[in-house]
Amino acid sequence: MPKLDREAIVSEALTLLDNIGLDAMSTRQLAKRLGVEQPSLYWHFRSKNALFAAMAEAAMAPHATMPLPATPQDWREWFMENWRSFRQTLLMHRDGARLHAGTNPKGSDFARAVHKLEFLVASGLPEHEARVAMLTANHFTIGSVLEEQADTTEEDDDGPEMDYATTFDMGLAMIIDGLAQRTTRDMNPPS
């Protein structure tokens, strides 16, 4: 048996998540898959919630490697690509949005979030509006993926099949357009 460490546990936990889903996950099942006794997991993670937090962080790794924005990049293009990347990363794992919901960035992820906010401000957006836009896009993205991952409709249902990617892009464009309009209005108040 290979050495049991946090990385191996999280990797196997994400595989288990993809196989059975978040509701069915248990440390008992994970320990069995790893060939260890359940208390061995608690040596590395104090609780199931701590394990889930580590899983959520690891699941976000593909998005965390996306290049950070830099001037003179257009903030609208970056904003669209950033949240598309976030959406795609959430979709990589079964129940990825549920796993990620409620987490907060820490360490290097927090530093990346601060850099993104600073980029938006340097691009001419007021800081408050940039913060709210990032939070709104975050919630919109998680909610969109939650709905997509929860969709259990069959193709032969009466309604048309949802094109989630197109709908997501349209909603995100509305957030961007609203932010651009607010920013223009704030910078050019009526006389």
UniProtKB/TrEMBL annotation:
Signal peptide: none
DNA-binding region: 26-45
InterPro entries, sorted: DNA-bd_HTH_TetR-type_CS (IPR023772), Homeodomain-like_sf (IPR009057), HTH-type_TetR-like_transc_reg (IPR050109), HTH_TetR (IPR001647), Repressor_TetR_C (IPR004111), Tet_transcr_reg_TetR (IPR003012), Tet_transcr_reg_TetR-rel_C_sf (IPR036271)
PROSITE patterns: HTH_TETR_1 (PS01081), HTH_TETR_2 (PS50977)
Domain HTH tetR-type: 3-63
Keyword vocabulary terms for this entry: DNA-binding, Repressor, Transcription, Transcription regulation
Pfam families xrefs: TetR_C_1, TetR_N
Domain of life, source organism: Bacteria
PANTHER family hit by this protein: HTH-TYPE TRANSCRIPTIONAL REGULATOR RUTR, TRANSCRIPTIONAL REGULATORY PROTEIN
Protein's UniProt name: TetR/AcrR family transcriptional regulator C-terminal domain-containing protein
